Amino acid sequence: MKVMVIGASGTIGRGIVENLQKDHEIIRVGKTQGDLQVDLTDEASVKQLFTQSGKVDAIIAATGSVHFGPLAEMSSEQFNSGLQDKLMGQVRLVLTGKNYLNAGGSFTLTTGILTQHPIRTGVNATAVNAALEGFVLAAANELGFRINAVSPTVLTEALDKYGPFFPGFESAPASRVALAYRRSLEGIDTGKVYRVW
After folding, report:
1. pTM of this prediction?
2. How many whole angstroms separate alpha carbon 31 and alpha carbon 36?
3. Contacts with 190 (C-beta within 8 Å, 6 or more apart), sequence order
4. Residue 73 DSSP one-character state
5. H-helix or E-strand containing 2?
6. Is 135 within 8 Å of 61 (Cβ atoms)?
């Protein structure tokens, strides 16, 4: 299959590419690097991405930023940054990308463990992830293509940076998280969230 991986140079993205590249043709997409570039917060950039790529068999989004900070100090602009980046970025990818998927194609989006297990300073992340999971659940009924999400715990490779924010959480290596993306890509499920905790 020809598989587009957005966020291919990130920790999860590298794990996905490593797992899939021996069996599939991978189009690596990033904000500033890769085979193609895209800014998911910009509608024109997303349309340009697909104009350049042409038809693909699957689209995997392993990208998206949210705002971390105390709710008491959070502005609506800061909250909106996560909505526009991780939530609308992935939704925008589906709304435009559905026109470039071959028959039998699929989408795999990325949420996270904070949907069910909030942490201090993570209100935006929990809200965004929950909204993405709702989108996947509902879109699966109307989209005409399979759509799933992967919800990973904190990555082992990122513990030095994020570990203090996830006290008592078990981590998972990117290589194990990547298996869920393969399962979504090659399986038969739709509207499912694969939790890797």
Report:
1. 0.97
2. 8
3. 106, 140, 146, 147, 148
4. G
5. strand 2-6
6. no
Burial of 26 (0-12, 13-18, 19+ CB in 10 A): buried
Q: Write out the two tokens for 102.
A: 């071959």
Q: Using 50, 70 and 90 to split pLDDT, how confident is the model at 153?
A: very high
Query: If you count them, how many residues does the chain have?
Result: 197
SS (H, E, C) 114-173: HHCCCCCCCHHHHHHHHHHHHHHHHHCCCCCCEEEEEEECCEHHHHHHHHHHCCCCCCEC
In order, the DSSP letters of 81-126 are: HHIIIIIHHHHHHHHHHGGGEEEEEEEEEE--GGGTS--TT-HHHH
Tokens in use for 90?
A: 């992935």
3-class DSSP state of 29: strand
Tens digits of residue pLDDT in 99-146: 999 999 999 999 999 999 999 999 999 999 999 999 999 999 999 999
Q: How far apart are CA 9 and CA 35, in angstroms?
A: 11
